[in-house]
Write a structure and sequence with these properties.
mainly beta, nine-stranded mixed β-sheet
């Protein structure tokens, strides 16, 4: 009887292992192998624009075609007056995107080699560079089931999928966010803030502080909440 019970138990455990679904492996990035765009991500090769609209109305526009200064624009359809920009010059064949401006007001420079912007709907954009003011290497976007990865060293979209929220989450978790902040639409206007740092995947240090603010009654007025010690004009 004991042997029969042991046999049935082993069969049950074997069937559980057999039926357990396998996770889709993470994509191999950094290959400069192009894929077709999908979902809300689009590229315009004629003028070097990358665009993405999040599920909640956030907008990312990366202007990669300008010969000098190049810019990533962060906007939101719920507050058309918002114009958060990451600006930088072409340096040794790369783009830096290290200067952060809120409606043309220079708020600060990037503090880490990685910079993440979180939208109110939870969508994330992560920029990876060589150093705080060095050339950017990649731009990743994670938004629900969508995951997109653009290699800035060879101007190639290496990954673009809308198929799996689980895979998008695991890709996001595998990539450290670095200096992470976001935008928040409030009853008074818009807040631009920093939220946490993540030097290594999973090692998050929470520390929220406001960087800049826009006001409904005067969108042209920018309140600078942050004093960048390395920049005398911020």
């Amino acid at each position: 009887m004991n042997r029969l019970l042991m046999f049935l138990l082993l069969c049950f455990l074997a069937s559980c292992r057999k039926d357990k679904p396998t996770q889709e492996p993470l994509p191999i990035l950094g290959t400069c192998q192009a894929v077709s765009e999908s979902g809300c991500f689009s590229t315009t090769t004629a003028n070097g624009l990358l665009t993405y609209t999040t599920s909640g109305g956030g907008e990312i526009i990366a202007d990669l075609g300008s010969p000098g200064y190049q810019t990533i624009y962060i906007r939101h359809r719920m507050y058309p007056a918002l114009n958060l920009t990451l600006v930088g010059y072409r340096s040794q064949g790369g783009r830096t995107f290290h200067m952060e401006r809120l409606n043309n007001r220079h708020i600060k420079n990037r503090q880490y080699s990685r910079r993440t912007i979180v939208f109110p709907d939870g969508a994330k954009m992560t920029l990876v560079a060589d150093s705080p003011d060095g050339p950017a290497r990649s731009l990743s976007i994670y938004d629900g089931t969508q995951a997109h990865h653009y290699n800035l060293t060879c101007d190639v979209l290496e990954y673009s999928s809308t198929a799996s929220a689980d895979l998008a989450r695991r890709m996001d978790e595998a990539e450290a966010d670095g200096e992470a902040g976001g935008i928040e639409i409030t009853e008074n206007g818009v807040l631009f803030f920093n939220l946490y740092t993540e030097d290594q995947p999973g090692k998050v240090i929470n520390k929220r502080y406001n960087l800049g603010e826009l006001h409904h009654n005067d969108p042209s007025k920018v309140t600078d909440h942050y004093d960048d010690p390395g920049q005398p004009n911020t």
